[in-house]
Amino acid sequence: MVNNAGVLGFAIAVPGADLSADGDKTIAASITTTDAAGNSGSASDSEGYTVDTAAPSVVVDIVDTSLNSGPRRQPDRPEGLHRHFHGERRFHRHRQCQRRRRQLHQCRR
Questions:
Q1: Quick check: 59 and 53 in contact, CB under 8 A?
Q2: pTM of the model
Q3: Which residue windows does the record flag with biased composition (Basic and acidic residues) (predicted)?
Q4: pLDDT one-digit tens code per residue, 36-80
């Protein structure tokens, strides 16, 4: 017995595979109860149901609005290397060398 907001009822767990395999897709339930004085009562009901076996579909709409607007954030670059944006999707790199602690660090392409 289940008390659902002051209403007594019952619940039975049924595996989804059993519901899917049921040919008529109908759940039929009946109950009979008897109280201490010997009075009995019964009720029955049935409900139809559907099982959705279609795989969900996904639609991906790729819209790249950043192709002509340049990079939003400079990615991490090795020291001495930087990139400039010049117009529509054209980049070029500049070499830049720095001296530190008496060592010449070569710039990378």
A1: no
A2: 0.38
A3: 73-82
A4: 999 999 999 999 999 888 888 888 877 765 555 555 565 555 555
Residue 22 lies in a domain: yes
Q: Is residue 9 part of a domain?
A: yes
In three-state form (DSSP H/G/I as H, E/B as E, the rest C), the secondary structure along the chain is: CEEECCEEECCCCCCHHHHHHCCCCEEEEEEEEECCCCCEEEEEEEEECCCCCCCCCCCCCCCCCCCCCCCCCCCCCCCCEEEEECCCCCEEEEECCEEECCEEECCCC
Q: Which domain holds residue 27?
A: 2-48
In a domain, 35, yes or no: yes
**Whether 93 contacts 82, CB under 8 Å:** yes
In a domain, 85, yes or no: no
Q: What is the CA radius of gyration of the chain?
A: 36
Number of domains in the chain: 1
